[in-house]
Amino acid sequence: MLSNEFRMGRPGMSKGRAPGHRSRQRGVVLILALIVLVALTLAAVALTRSVGTSNSIAGNLAFQQAATHSADRGVEAAVKWLEDNVNEATGCSSGSAVACDQTAKGYLAARTDPDTASKQSWGEFWTKALITKATPVDISDASTGNKVSYIIQRMCETTGEANTSANVCATAPRAVAGSCPGGTSCTGGGGRGGTGSNVDSPKQTYYRITVIVNGPRNTQSMVQAMVAI
Known about the structure:
Blueprint: H1 4-8, H2 21-85, E1 107-108, H3 122-133, E2 137-138, E3 147-154, E4 206-214, E5 220-228
Parallel strand pairs: 1-3
Antiparallel strand pairs: 2-3, 3-4, 4-5
């Protein structure tokens, strides 16, 4: 005959699962919680970096746009200098102010171009060659923190007066006497359908203006403009 202890179980022992099962279950839950916490932490870090990168890109684009706007000021300043000096006499033997180099004022009377053989960029050409020939004119914009500089090049083969037998320059197209059909607006005299000759307009020489802007966050913008005066 079985004893009561054998039939009823030992005192202090619970029926069903072993005593260590609940402890093992709590350990698994803790590991899963740690895994989820690590995953959430990594997601938060990735989101933070993504937002920071987006803000940096937006800021860089804003600085780039501001640098381009400042470059427009450089172009206008260079055009103003040309308008003030293109018909002025100077001390150089060739005559007009724009016929000879004025390196201290950022002006070159003959064009120079990047080395195409070595595929030189304009940025490299500005740093290694152009600024060694003329001193860039500084018109920095203190309100934006942009440093604006420009150099003007006359599109001629050599220094001296433009469009002479000793010099060839790039010029804007012009009307030559007798080249316009009768009755057009470029015909001078003779009235509508008349036989008058159109006015022979003077040649306008091309000038290349190169403006470079250095701004915050290593922002750099280069703008070029070609004007005929």
